[in-house]
């Protein structure tokens, strides 16, 4: 067995670039940009009114004029109007173009309008007040968003403002998710006393969906020939084969031998950690990668978060979400293994606190439902107190 640090090092040696492709704007959220995005025009593209009110020439105001005849209204979406008489004003709406001949907007709250005359009830104005100047945010040709940026809803809005109906993003790997085990039945079936419904594969599919990967799901029986036939096909059509179960040392754990028959180079099989000690990682002759997780739900979950997601993010240039937190109570762990502990999070007196999820075993799905982060304790210590911060891996 190898250490967690060594496992991560070996996995990161298999990082690769899957290229880029164009996707529709509304399918780009959460993806990684593979292009710099430039402004196709100034933003704002005109001197934009930011308050409902009247637009005037500040020179007239400086002469002491406080009453202005209203010539008309400049609404948002209208072509730009011109103030014909610099001693008059135009009513303007938020978002409208600033009329030609005007350089200040006085909000309605400081005006009294009677019989078409606006009387200003203020003795101080500034040039370009309540106006968002053209090009103030960006000039035509400026880079708005750099490549390698994660697309968020706010960035989606900016991409839309730049006129992009399609966006070039980093291509994601194709993934096949395979559950193994004769004890598994489909979720719409009533299990017999010796059976359980599939859950790990659905959990993994949901995790992958959050990354924008629409994986295919398969169920492989505990039979070497069946495994060999199914996996030989899947390896040829996917960048990643993700397996759950059949990697330990039980008499029906045929997967390692089957993968070996398919020509897989085993990079490692076993990590000094809990949960997830039997985790297997390898590379096929055609460069397809195999992430074979132990079958217990928490083992599958932890290994996915710590290893596959780390590899995926390294491939596409995305960073894992991390933080530091203090333990809400001391933790003791005697085995000389890295201990990955599931926690919930809360703030107490301004400090982020991590609370261990009690009574969780490797098969405890209920614990997973409440998990907000993972704390990984080093193998060379046994006692962990509440007076020092520990690294957290935050979940999506």
Mean pLDDT: 92
Largest sheet, described in full? 6 strands, mixed
- Unreliable stretches covering 5 or more consecutive residues: none
State the helicity in percent bands. 10-25%
Main-sheet strand order equals 7-4-6-5-9-8
The fraction of residues assigned to DSSP E strands is 25-35%
Question: Number of helix segments?
Answer: 8
Q: Any idea how many domains?
A: 4
Question: What does it look like?
Answer:
Strands 7-4-6-5-9-8 form a 6-stranded mixed sheet. With 396 residues, the chain is an alpha/beta fold. The protein has 4 domains: 4-18 and 172-316, 3-Layer(aba) Sandwich (Molybdenum Cofactor Biosythetic Enzyme, Chain A), CATH 3.40.980.10; 21-43 and 137-170, Molybdopterin biosynthesis moea protein, domain 2 (Alpha-Beta Complex), CATH 3.90.105; 48-132, Molybdopterin biosynthesis moea protein, domain 3 (Molybdopterin biosynthesis moeA protein, domain 3, Beta Complex), CATH 2.170.190.11; 322-394, Beta Barrel (Beta-clip), CATH 2.40.340. It has 8 helices and 28 strands. The mean pLDDT is 92. 20% of the residues lie in helices and 31% in strands. It has helices at residues 4-12, 58-62, 153-161, 200-210, 224-237, 255-261, 297-316, 365-370, and strands spanning 20-24, 37-38, 48-49, 53-56, 67-74, 89-92, 104-107, 111-114, 117-120, 131-132, 143-145, 166-170, 175-180, 184-185, 196-197, 216-220, 240-244, 265-269, 273-274, 280-283, 289-293, 322-327, 331-332, 338-348, 351-356, 373-377, 383-384, 389-394.
């Amino acid at each position: 067995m190898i250490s967690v640090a060594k496992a991560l090092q070996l996995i990161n040696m298999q990082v690769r670039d899957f290229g880029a492709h164009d996707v529709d704007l509304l399918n780009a959220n959460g993806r990684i940009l593979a292009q710099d995005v430039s402004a196709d025009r100034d933003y704002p593209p005109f001197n934009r009114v930011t308050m409902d009110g009247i637009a005037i020439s500040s020179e007239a105001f400086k002469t002491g004029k406080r009453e202005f005849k209203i010539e008309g209204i400049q609404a948002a979406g209208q072509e730009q109007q011109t103030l014909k008489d610099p001693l008059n004003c135009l009513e303007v709406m938020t978002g409208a173009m600033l009329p030609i001949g005007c350089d200040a907007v006085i909000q309605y709250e400081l005006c009294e309008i009677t019989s078409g005359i606006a009387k200003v009830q203020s003795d101080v104005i500034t040039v370009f007040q309540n106006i968002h100047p053209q090009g103030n945010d960006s000039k035509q040709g400026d880079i708005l968003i750099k490549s390698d940026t994660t697309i968020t809803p706010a960035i989606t809005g900016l991409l839309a403002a730049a006129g992009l109906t399609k966006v070039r993003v980093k291509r994601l790997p194709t993934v096949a998710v395979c559950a193994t085990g004769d004890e598994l039945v489909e979720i719409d079936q009533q299990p017999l006393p010796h059976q359980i419904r599939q859950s790990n594969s659905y959990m993994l599919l949901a995790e992958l969906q959050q990354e924008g990967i629409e994986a295919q799901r398969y169920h492989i029986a505990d039979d070497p020939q069946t495994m060999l036939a199914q996996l030989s096909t899947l390896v040829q059509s996917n960048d990643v084969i993700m397996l759950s179960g059949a990697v330990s040392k039980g008499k029906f754990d045929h997967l390692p031998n089957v993968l070996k028959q398919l020509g897989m180079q085993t990079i490692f099989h076993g990590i000094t950690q809990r949960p997830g000690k039997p985790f297997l990682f390898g590379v096929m002759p055609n460069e397809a990668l195999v992430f074979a997780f132990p079958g217990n739900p928490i083992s599958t979950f932890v290994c996915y978060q710590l290893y596959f997601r780390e590899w995926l993010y390294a491939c596409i240039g995305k960073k894992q979400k991390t933080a530091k937190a203090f333990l809400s109570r001391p933790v003791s762990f005697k085995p000389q293994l890295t201990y990955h502990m599931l926690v919930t999070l809360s703030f107490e007196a301004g400090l982020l606190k991590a609370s261990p999820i009690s009574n969780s075993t490797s098969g405890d799905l209920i614990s997973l439902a409440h998990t907000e982060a993972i704390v990984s304790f080093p193998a060379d210590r046994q006692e962990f107190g509440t007076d020092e911060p520990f690294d957290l891996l935050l979940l999506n």
